[in-house]
Amino acid sequence: MRFPPRTTRIGAAAALLSALLIGGTVTATPAAAAVGSICYGDLPSQAYDTLRLIDAGGPFPYSQDGSVFQNREGILPAQSTGYYHEYTVKTPGSSTRGARRIVTGEEYQEDYYTADHYETFDLINYGC
């Protein structure tokens, strides 16, 4: 179960921390270097609703939720097609889906939040 905060979702952050602690090296692509970080507690309340729905397997409010995210912007770390999936984070007062999304990664079980429709991403840090 992913909610409450997932302690198993460590992905790229753990690789970086591990490399720093044991003196290894981390090679990041320019795109991966553009990914920021956001504390779980700093997410908007609607993001918690979306994460709960992801954990429950739906039902989702929008037909596009759960669709493959192509990473055309190249901001997230490069992965094969089908690795990432996107979910809408409702925007209060918006008559459309708005710009906010959670994008999940399968293998490393990482979650990213974007408030600006894929212009920037923050890896959700469940440990703060």
Task: Provide a descriptive summary of the structure in words.
It is a single chain. The protein is α+β, with helices and mostly antiparallel strands. Helices cover 22% and strands 20% of the residues. It has three helices and six strands; from the N terminus they run H-H-E-H-E-E-E-E-E. The protein is globular and about 35 Å long.
Briefly summarize what is shown.
Helices cover 22% and strands 20% of the residues.
Topology:
Layout: H1 11-22, H2 30-33, E1 36-39, H3 45-56, E2 67-69, E3 84-88, E4 101-105, E5 111-114, E6 122-125
Parallel strand pairs: 1-6
Antiparallel strand pairs: 2-3, 3-4, 4-5, 5-6
- Note the run of SSEs as H and E: HHEHEEEEE
Largest sheet, if any?
6 strands, mixed
User: Whole-number radius of gyration?
Assistant: 14 Å
Q: Average pLDDT, to the nearest integer? A: 81
Q: How many strands in all?
A: 6
Structural class: alpha+beta
Unreliable spans are 1-33
List keywords for this structure.
alpha+beta, 128 residues, disordered N terminus, 3 helices, single chain
